[in-house]
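WARN retry 2 of 3 for item q-0093 after timeout on previous attempt; input resubmitted unchanged.
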Amino acid sequence: MAMKPNSILFMGTPSFAAVALHGLTSAGFNVIGVVCRPDEKSGRYRLLTSPETKIEAQKHKIPVFQPINKLELVETVKKLKPELIVVAAYGMIIPQEALDIPKYGVLNIHGSLLPKYRGASPITEAILNGDKETGITIMKMSLGMDEGAIVSTYKLPIDDTDTTTSLTEKMAELGAKAIVETIPGWISGELAEMPQDDSKATYCRKITKEDGHIDWSKSAAQIERIIRAYQPWPTAYTFVNGFRIKILNSVRIPASAGMKNETGKLTFINDHLYIGTGEGSLEILELQSEGKKPVSAKDFINGNKQLDNKVLN
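OK item q-0093 returned
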């Protein structure tokens, strides 16, 4: 019979974490509380919005806690006294005092094959670098940034059409499967923790809105990955005549195809839209002008014929 802790405190905030929470409750684990970041104003009308994990917790009538600082977080853990804490994209550094409370420690669901891509944006980073494989690591949490010992790993191929949106959805499902399967072995002692090889560690930083600004001197392969990696945020973008245009979908035209196009130059050919890069060209399939809805390349061309042969910046 699979061993289960008597009580789990779940810490996580976005949809990636909500999927793991759903997995735990569906598998019959006793989640005694959910800790997430405070509600935030979002969207065009700045409406107060609850984190996805809060919404998921409320479906199951699980108490929700939204501490505003580390002191309040520690007090919450002390009050609940869970046997195990599970963390997935919580968004706040957890103090050692809180990590020391649960009998079975703290397991973290991380979206990469550690020690590769420690940090805030491992899924996006894997797409940016053209990786063919990623995965989920369940690790024993420590104070260092994703430096804890590895408990289990689950691998996942990256499709060459994956965006951060689509890959995050796949990774969330895999993360839920991984934590549900890992906990019994961790509790029973069958799964041993394995220290990470720090010499192989790589890091990824927090993404900013400015990262989406396309540098057309990069290769078509690099830019195509940028376009996929920065969906849903910050979205890859460029400027023409001072107006921002978001590039939402593209395909590479390799340099070997013989198409010669000036770097950053828009070219319209038979309802197709091409942009020259530092190496090769891109065909743009979907884009969005500032203040307007996303459109196909054909529709964009029909409404912007004056932009043919313009150079983007």
